[in-house]
Design brief:
The chain has 10 helices and 5 strands, in the order H-H-E-H-E-H-E-H-H-H-H-H-E-E-H. The chain has a 5-stranded mixed β-sheet with strand order 2-1-3-4-5. The chain is an alpha/beta fold. It is globular and about 60 Å long. It has helices at 6-22, 26-32, 50-54, 76-88, 103-110, 117-130, 132-136, 143-161, 163-170, 199-228, and strands at residues 38-43, 61-66, 93-99, 176-182, 189-191.
């Protein structure tokens, strides 16, 4: 790696040339229009490239990323992104996306200290504490990914509760909020079934999705416990 990062400029030129050769006029069209239908709120983890995961080109996905994919009601950065996406770009879908084995969620789950980010991760610990009994009852190997999914549900509900989304729904604008999780181990996105198209749907969508997450992880805990037990032949 060079000090002036010339290798990145070289890669950029190669990418730009290949893109223009594949789609002549691509950058001219991109300059004239940004009309994404989706806002992606995801983790800052470098292993989770939003556009690539869903096969969308530049200009087709509006993206906000932070540690542990949080939507905090006092975070003016995230709220400004949501407001611009909904009011100016008129996106139709807002997708909160977590990912398996998230380092931020793991730190929150295990009280691992990392510095200033600990204050940010306090929001994930609030989710952990709200489901403390459930998480404690899971096999230890499942706890982090379970919290990843619980956190997605909480942040999706937070999106629904913003004044921006509430106002959009009140005036009849079509905005659908989703919660997904990405598997680092297989590259696949999974729908956590928290999908809301109006304020009236938020409570039921959250409760239904939460019940599904808990049911699945309790079943996985049973399987993990059975796998750990010595067989009769080996006893």
């Amino acid at each position: 790696m060079s000090t002036d990062l010339q290798e990145l400029f070289q890669s950029n030129r190669q990418w730009a040339a290949a893109t223009e050769a594949r789609e002549p006029g691509f950058f001219t069209r991109l300059l004239n229009q940004q009309s994404p239908q989706y806002l992606w709120i995801g983790c800052a983890d470098s292993r989770v490239p939003a556009n690539d995961l869903v096969g969308l080109l530049p200009g087709e996905l509006f993206v906000h990323r932070n540690v542990a994919n949080l939507l905090v009601h006092s975070d003016l950065n995230a709220l400004s992104v949501v407001q611009y996406a909904v009011d100016a770009l008129q996106v139709s879908h807002i997708i909160v996306v977590g990912h398996s084995n998230c380092g931020g969620v793991r730190a929150a789950m295990t009280n691992q200290r990392a510095g200033l980010v600990d204050n940010w991760l306090r929001h994930v610990q609030d989710v952990r504490d709200a489901h403390e009994g459930f998480l404690a009852g899971l096999h230890e190997s499942l706890q982090v990914n379970a919290l990843v999914e619980l956190n997605v549900l909480e942040q999706a509900r937070n999106v629904c509760r913003t004044t921006v989304v509430s106002d959009a729904w009140h005036r009849g604008q079509s905005v659908v909020v989703h919660g997904w999780v990405y598997g680092l181990h297989n590259g696949l996105l999974e729908d956590l079934k928290i999908t809301a198209t109006s304020a009236d749907e938020v409570g039921l969508a959250y409760d239904t999705a939460l019940a599904l997450v808990k049911q699945r992880y309790r079943q996985l805990t049973v399987l993990a416990g059975a796998a750990a037990m010595p067989s009769a032949a080996g006893a």
